Amino acid sequence: MRKIWYLVLLSTSFFATATDCELLNQQATENSVMISPLETYQLKNNNGEKVYLYSAPNEACRTDTLLRADEISTLIVYSDYGNFYYVMYFLKDHPEDISGWVKIRNLKPTDSRLSPQ
Predict the structure, then answer these.
(1) Mean of the pLDDT values across residues 27-56?
(2) Could you give the angle at the alpha carbon of 107 between the alpha carbons of 105 and 108, nearest 5°?
């Protein structure tokens, strides 16, 4: 019986973590500071530190997606929340956009603004 309760507890904490990231993303999206005009950014070289995409602006919400400067054609910052930026980027060999949260310390502006069309 103890083993069953232990398994239930483990599975419950796993699903709670996933839900927390979704909820945190929703709250951060609603309360983030929009950046205008939109600017393009690039990845910094932080002594070889890996740059990950996050599903919400929280360490616990790190995804397996690793960003690499040589694969990104354009990276746009949309909003700011805590020490994270909400970004959208395009890969050089992939036509669809990818979005998520990236730590601010890993990005630097290119001084290029996007004009509305």
Answers:
(1) 90
(2) 110
